[in-house]
Please model this.
Amino acid sequence: MNIRNFSIIAHIDHGKSTLADRLLEICHTVPPDKMKPQLLDSLALERERGITIKLAPVRLKYNLDGVEYVLNLIDTPGHVDFSYEVSRALAAVEGAILLVDATQGIQAQTLAHGLAALEQNLTLIPVINKIDLPNADIESTKKQLIETFGFTAEEILLVSGKTGQGIERLLQAIIEHIPAPKSAGVNTNPPQGWAEEDKFRALIFGSFFDNFKGVVAEVRIVEGQTPKTQAPIIFLGTKASGHILETGFFAPQLTPNNGLKAGEIGYIATGIKEPDLVRVGDTIATDFFQDPLPGYKQVKPMVFVGLFPIDADEYFELKEALAKFRLTDPAFSYTPEQSRALGAGFRCGFLGLLHAEVVQERLLKEFNVDLLATAPSVEYLLDGKPVISPSDLPQGTNIKNLEEPWVSLRIFVPQTYIGSVMELVQDRRGKFLNMQHFGIQVELLYEMPLSEMVTNFYDKLKSVSSGFASLDWEFLDFREVDAVRVDILVSGEKVDAFSTIVFRPKAESFGRRMVEKLKEVLPRQNFTIAIQAAIGGTIIARETVSPFRKDVTAKLYGGDRTRKDKLLEKQKKGKKKMKMVGRVEIPQEAFLSVLKS
Model:
């Protein structure tokens, strides 16, 4: 079979998208006048930030020794928050290009993605990129690859995604070393009269919504070939049924064809209008008796953020947008939530802070939904039951059997910055495990509470290491913690959107920071506003927003002092009355400003 399916895996900024551009160019997949940098990064946000967020499949054709080969490439993201995209891409291919930047060497995601590919028994092709740069350290990078993954020096290819140097040799290696796809095997217990050519199974590794075609499933055909157009299909996981409206492949735009056969990667337009019925990891088949494919393990969200529409009338538009968005990003999850301060919204789960930030930006740009987001929190366990929202935790300081999630950290950093990085992690309650040297790079292994990582840890890590540190993490377990719920009260009323679960020794400083920030952003009223941070009934920090003062004595032109006192006393009573009746409305700008900080 002249088909090769492969992915490109690497750490962020190691040149995956640029290498994909050169492969597209050399295989003449895209006309020269349509070629542009990072062509497979189709989202506006990807181009704006210069990072890959979504996996992107594309079909290439390459002629070697007079034989034409079909190469199905899936480009993948490099950031730790999008590792689920990588795992889905790896399950749909037989091999992977392990790309390493010659100027930076092996980094956290190089190791994480490389090991994930080996676990799935994929064929790895080690490639050193950016060899054209003057500061490229090819020998040191080669040595790291040999020591870490056990490659031989002859296996390692040298390329430049920018200039195209070594790309032809890489294409040859893909064809020679990555095995052709194999069928998944025969179905068990076929019904009477069922012919061998009727068998068909496809794995869904991605999907998106089209207003005319319904849900479009990105698939790897594992067995048989797609039935004819308008033929019925079923989804073994959700038990839903649909019809094939169109099949085709990615070039990289959707290109219809007459059907897909075993081993190919392409798309199937299902005509289904309900996004929840087509799930990533599900199996498309023609009969319910067929065995479902293994699919993917369900990803567990680690960071939770409440998303609320700024205009309450847009609640249903937001709900519809989230359902459609989840098709393009199955690592994202959401459940309805009610807040006294913000009204009806959704408690959303993400894989990390960058993931949360990117989703909010995509919802705004792709679905035109204006959102207000609460502070990020993590899932706690209280007596073994999950506590996702801070308002679900009881008040007070005597909370027993509360557990928080811990993660294992793998930090790659140049030796110069070891001290400052260690100081930062220890300040965040990190526990040192091990240190390993990779040339001038050092790998530090730590255990740390996830709650400490979601409060700008990544930004601080980049800051103390001058941008050189790289980070990979994975969930470990839940461990007991002495934490409390810090509530923020404005004029005696609790604002549930600002409630946060905090490690007890850090609660007071956290409360003080919050009330100071609120004092800066809350608009002044005609009466005094008390801003307080409280644990249960105990106030731990307070700031006061002073009122506007009207000069009621300005109209007096003389006379006894008692006339002045009488007017001031009257004003005092009026302010007291106003304070009792008037509620402090917190403007959206104040929410945004505090929650961002």
About this structure: Residues 197-285 form a domain with the Elongation Factor Tu (Ef-tu); domain 3 fold (CATH 2.40.30.10). The first strand starts at residue 3 and ends at 10. The chain has five domains: 3-177, 197-285, 306-323+332-376, 402-480, 484-596. The chain has a mean pLDDT of 82.
